[in-house]
Amino acid sequence: NGISTLGNLLAESAGCKIHRETLVTGINRGPGGRWQIDPDSRDGVGEEFDDVVLALPAPQAAELLPAEPPELAGLKAALSATRFQSQWSFMIGYGRADDVWSDEERYALVNPDREHPIAWLSHENAKPDRISSEFTVVMAQMQPDWTLKNYDVPADELIEKVNCEVMQLLDKSATPIWHDAQRWRFSLPTGILDANAARTAESTGIHIAGDSTTGKGRVSLALQSGLDLAGRLIDA
Ligand SMILES: Cc1cc2nc3c(=O)[nH]c(=O)nc-3n(C[C@H](O)[C@H](O)[C@H](O)COP(=O)(O)OP(=O)(O)OC[C@H]3O[C@@H](n4cnc5c(N)ncnc54)[C@H](O)[C@@H]3O)c2cc1C
User: Fold this and answer.
1) For the chain, which domains are there?
2) Which ligand 1 atom sits closest to the C-alpha of 212?
3) Is the terminal CB of the chain with fewer CB neighbours within 10 Å at N or C?
4) How many CB atoms sit inside 10 A of residue 165's CB?
5) pLDDT of amino acid 115
């Protein structure tokens, strides 16, 4: 049912207070030494915490951390140094009659040698109850190198190029009826956060979870890192 299902189920089972649609703009120590989160709205202002877990791409986490106390300096530097690759994603809708995905046995094509501009191409109709029968929908995840070259080009200007690559791969010829695109600046980690820097900072109450700590962009690994950290915090 889509990637948001896991988050919704976790939120439901945790039974805790969640501030949705709230951008954190900074994390600071209050006068009593506890942590305060600065949100972009009044919602949640004034609450203080002994521990804060940051589970977002490492370079973005680095920007939220204050310069003090000094035990955070190593973590801030290590987070900034943890590299991520970027990725353009295109969802493209074709008319059903164009029959762009005729191989019903395959739901996706993956590019293991990284030689092709498309890293992953999937047939969204293969997912139950997802796509209206009017359309054939494919999802094209573009290679990091291709993404970098085209990072600042508007999606509407890229769609023709992307469609050409898709058609060549599928050996078809069709024009998209519609498309949607998302540019992920920090899509998948290519490095791993220095675990020593993270451990040193834990004495301040600042903790890191998520795929920055696993070095691999996998939902299961990110989730496990959060569960492991939660276990350590509960036991402490
Ligand atoms: C295009 C794409 C395809 C992928 N495909 C797969 C796949 O098929 N299988 C797989 O296992 N993994 C896949 N991944 C990788 C997977 O999505 C990540 O590894 C995983 O989501 C990492 O989880 P996380 O909790 O560490 O961080 P994220 O999922 O990145 O969550 C971080 C959250 O923090 C929020 N956030 C960031 N900054 C702030 C702020 N200042 N204030 C408030 N909130 C903030 C973000 O909005 C986001 O919700 C894919 C990733 C991408 C981009």
Assistant:
1) 4-83+191-235 (3.50.50.60), 84-188 (3.90.660.10)
2) 26
3) C
4) 18
5) 86
